[in-house]
């Protein structure tokens, strides 16, 4: 278990800004409106060359019962309990509030040690609040500005005793050097081209319309109430990633905010949530599209499905609340017909009926995720592809060019996986009909068992670059 730091505090003191600063990229949604973060978000952070796990939490609220705030509070308490040390953030510009005092008293009762951090200390406006923070009785506050990156070395010094107690070993030579800021474009490019690494977590993103049971499914997979759930639509705002082990392999599960029709989105926070979800899809390996059995593949579901296919992600369709369907066979037939006619780009997509509430269908869902990921990573030998191509052309040659000239297709090769992508070398590539390209794509899907994943086929002209290398 890595050294873990939980960031806690009342709403709108800058917890998510500090989280983003420590992980080196904008993973958490940041907005002036209080209460944006509702679930725990975890990330791999680095400070002065020391790597650790950091957890962003919902703002402390003084409410009980079964309210959303009470459920958020439960998640925050769990994060503190599981951490090696907690950072209690206050807003130095606002000063110490009664809610700050209340939760300082609450954290004092916990077993986890707490470091008091006064945020927004840039300039002189935060000075009064910084001095006022001494009155909380939690030791000397660490002045920082999460937005501007000030005070990070002081925060590092405050964390180090707890890191060393947790077994973190410091390298003295690198202690004074900042780690390089990650190049997101370079990271994305290298991940896209890399071969599957069995030691790296499989990134599985759960998406769907609001209130179809995405977070309930996430909790069922994780085996704990890790994600905030409830009957209220739109509970999840951030895309929340949690790593766990399934069948001996690491999986990173990402729960996302519900996607509604664009015309129905007016709220600025929801727009940020949607952007966060779309970015999660782009970074995914397998996307699980959850839909409600009472509204199978409505227009919005199809819009989301096409978006996933356009991004080239592996896909699994999960139909939730199947236990309340009155005529399962009819409903399943309707789903398959709709997928066949409305989603040809992922023909043969794996479909699982399930109940996130009682766990029915969960093993089959994970089997489908692994199968889809395996196909998404598949590579086909060049010689095998060209034997197939010769048979296909003989059985159904491409239409003739104007003037009756025969259209020549010379060669095919797979240029990358994830998703399977092929280059077809031919004379006059612009004149090969789209219908024949679709015919070849469908042939590839059937011949090499590439069902349920997007396939890219690019027609290229010019000399075959592999002709002299042997296939």
From TrEMBL:
Residues 3-167, 202-377 form the EngA-type G domain. One of its GO terms (molecular function) is GTP binding. GTP 2 binds at residues 208-215, 255-259, 320-323. Residues 174-201 are annotated as: Disordered. GTP 1 binds at residues 9-16, 56-60, 119-122. It holds the Pfam family MMR_HSR1. Keywords: GTP-binding, Nucleotide-binding, Repeat, Ribosome biogenesis. Residues 174-196 have a biased composition (Acidic residues). HAMAP family: GTPase_Der. PANTHER family: GTPASE DER. Associates with the 50S ribosomal subunit. NCBIfam families: GTPase_EngA (TIGR03594), small_GTP (TIGR00231). Belongs to the TRAFAC class TrmE-Era-EngA-EngB-Septin-like GTPase superfamily. EngA (Der) GTPase family. GTPase that plays an essential role in the late steps of ribosome biogenesis. This is GTPase Der. It comes from Magnetospirillum fulvum MGU-K5.
């Amino acid at each position: 278990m890595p050294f873990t730091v939980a960031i806690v505090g009342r709403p709108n003191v800058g917890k998510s800004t500090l989280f983003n600063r420590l992980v080196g990229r904008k993973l958490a949604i940041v907005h002036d409106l209080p209460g944006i973060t509702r679930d725990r978000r975890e990330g791999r952070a680095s400070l002065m060359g020391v790597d650790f796990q950091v957890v962003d939490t919902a703002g402390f609220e003084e409410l009980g019962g079964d309210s959303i705030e009470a459920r958020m509070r439960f998640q925050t308490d769990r994060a503190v309990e599981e951490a090696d040390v907690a950072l209690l953030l206050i807003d130095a510009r606002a000063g110490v509030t009664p809610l700050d005092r209340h939760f300082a008293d609450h954290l004092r009762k916990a077993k986890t040690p707490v470091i008091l951090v006064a945020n927004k200390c840039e300039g002189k406006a935060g000075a009064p609040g910084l001095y006022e923070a001494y009155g909380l009785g939690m030791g000397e506050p660490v002045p920082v500005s999460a937005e501007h990156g000030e005070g990070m070395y002081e925060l590092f010094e405050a964390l180090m005793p707890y890191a060393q107690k947790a077994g973190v070993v410091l390298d003295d030579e690198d202690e004074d050097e900042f780690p390089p800021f990650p190049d997101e474009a370079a990271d994305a490019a290298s991940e896209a081209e890399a071969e599957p690494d069995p030691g790296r977590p499989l990134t599985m993103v759960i998406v769907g319309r609001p209130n179809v049971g995405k977070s309930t499914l996430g909790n069922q997979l994780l085996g704990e109430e890790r994600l905030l759930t409830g009957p209220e639509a739109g509970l999840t705002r951030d895309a929340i990633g949690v790593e766990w082990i399934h069948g001996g392999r690491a999986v990173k599960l990402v729960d996302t905010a519900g996607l509604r029709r664009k015309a129905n989105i007016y709220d600025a926070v929801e727009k940020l949530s949607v952007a966060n979800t779309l970015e999660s899809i782009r970074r995914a390996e397998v996307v699980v599209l959850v839909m409600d059995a009472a509204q199978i593949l409505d227009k919005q579901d199809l819009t989301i499905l096409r978006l996933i296919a356009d991004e080239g992600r592996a896909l699994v369709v999960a139909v939730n609340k199947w236990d309340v369907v009155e005529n399962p066979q009819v409903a399943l037939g309707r789903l398959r017909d709709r997928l066949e006619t409305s989603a040809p780009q992922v023909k043969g997509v794996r479909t699982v009926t399930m109940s996130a509430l009682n766990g029915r269908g969960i093993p089959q869902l994970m089997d489908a995720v692994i199968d889809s990921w395996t196909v998404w990573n598949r590579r086909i030998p060049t010689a095998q592809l060209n034997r197939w191509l010769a048979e296909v052309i003989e059985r159904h040659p491409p239409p003739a060019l104007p003037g009756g000239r025969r259209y020549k297709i010379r060669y095919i090769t797979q240029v990358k996986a994830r998703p399977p992508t092929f280059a077809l070398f031919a004379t006059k590539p612009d004149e090969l009909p789209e219908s024949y390209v679709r015919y070849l794509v469908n042939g590839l899907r059937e011949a090499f068992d590439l069902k349920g994943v997007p396939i890219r086929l690019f027609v290229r002209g010019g000399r075959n670059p592999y002709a002299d290398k042997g296939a």
